[in-house]
Amino acid sequence: RRMAIALREAVRLEQITLAYQPKVALATGRLAGVEALARWVLPDGTAVPPSEFIPLAERRGLIGALGDSVMDTALAQIRAWCDDGLPAPVVAVNFSALQFQRENPTQRLALAMDRHGVPAGLLELELTESLLIGDIDVVMQSLRTFRDLGVTLSIDDFGTGYSSLAYLRRFPIQYLKIDRQFVSAMASDTSACEIVRLIVEMAHRLNLRCIAEGIETVAQLELLKAMGCDEGQGFLLARPMPPLAMDEVLAGRL
Ligand code: G
Ligand code: G
Ligand code: NA
Ligand code: MN
């Protein structure tokens, strides 16, 4: 309860910041994009993990305001990279299912992109399986509008939950993120390895790109390359980093 009040205050004071984690094209090793990850550091220096404050925000009706703040920060960052002459990467923002239940989620996003002068091609939304809760038609309409705007849509944590395959058929997505649990197990567990192989193959047959998240070892990386997985993300490749460190990565890429 006290946490909820503190979180509301932190959102209002714009104390929720973003860290950026690179996504790497596995065939070339080049930067393919970044994921924006929300960070909350209390005045006493304690970092509250997003795995705590995102669900808290969802329970307490704060995810709308938090989501707006995250989006605004991400778009301002893209603008700043462009203004600084850096090669702005596609930025993937996590988008909670509850954000679809608000009034006009698509118009809200379109206005925010306009306000920052950010082209939709530089924005990606990472969606989770919980998307299927609530009114499917409303979600579907929003997804189509996002697509029409030119925003990339991806399914996060693919393979977990209960309806992943239904998503592929019904939603206009471009990108699958293979859940970390399969990636971490793949070098030691044959079935995890075969599941990853099948997801990669299925993604390609459906004309989707795929990315493996949570890559921590060279063995995992080599297996994923051999399978033809398009992109990778994980501590082995790069950790989430503050904006200034990301500036340096982008500058080095010039
Ligand atoms: O940043 P990791 O370091 O701990 O993130 C933990 C979880 O929080 C992940 O599932 C991630 O998708 C989610 N998350 C991080 N930032 C955001 C955000 O801005 N919005 C939403 N909805 N989820 C986020
Ligand atoms: O659910 P989502 O995929 O958005 O989660 C992103 C989370 O995964 C972030 O908390 C990020 O810090 C974390 N993460 C990124 N790379 C790795 C990794 O290689 N290993 C582990 N354990 N977590 C990672
Ligand atoms: Na994510
Ligand atoms: Mn994920």
Name the features.
binds manganese (II) ion; 46% helix; globular; eight-stranded mixed β-barrel; TIM Barrel; binds sodium ion; 254 residues; alpha/beta; binds guanosine-5'-monophosphate
Q: Which outline best applies?
A: globular
CATH fold description: TIM Barrel
Number of strands: 9
Provide the β-strand percentage band.
15-25%
Q: How many structural units, i.e. domains?
A: 1
Bound molecules: guanosine-5'-monophosphate, sodium ion, manganese (II) ion
What do the pLDDT scores average to? 94
Low-confidence stretches: none
Give me the secondary-structure category: alpha/beta
**CATH-level-4 superfamily name:** EAL domain
- How far is the N terminus from the C terminus? 47 Å
The strands making up the biggest β-sheet line up spatially as 1-2-4-5-6-7-8-9
Largest sheet: 8 strands, mixed, barrel
* Proportion of helical residues: 40-55%
Radius of gyration in whole Å, from Cα? 18 Å
Indicate the CATH class. Alpha Beta
Order of helices and strands: HEEEHHEHEHEHEHHEHEH
In DSSP terms (H or I, runs of 4 or more residues), the helix count works out at: 10
Outline the fold blueprint.
Elements (H helix, E strand, L loop, with lengths): L1 H11 L3 E10 L5 E11 L5 E2 L1 H10 L3 H21 L7 E4 L10 H12 L6 E5 L8 H14 L2 E7 L5 H7 L4 E4 L1 H6 L4 H16 L3 E4 L5 H10 L3 E2 L10 H11 L1
Helix pairs in contact: 3-4
Manganese (II) ion (MN) binds next to strand 6.
Task: Please explain how this structure is put together.
The structure is a single chain. By secondary structure, this protein is an alpha/beta fold. It has helices at residues 2-12, 50-59, 63-83, 105-116, 136-149, 164-170, 180-185, 190-205, 218-227, 243-253, and strands at 16-25, 31-41, 47-48, 91-94, 123-127, 152-158, 175-178, 209-212, 231-232. The protein has a single domain (2-179, 232-253), classed as EAL domain (TIM Barrel). Helices cover 46% and strands 19% of the residues. The protein has an 8-stranded mixed barrel, surrounded by 4 helices. Helix 3 runs parallel beside helix 4 (105-116). It is globular. The termini are far apart. The relative contact order is 0.14. One guanosine-5'-monophosphate binds next to strand 2 and helix 2.
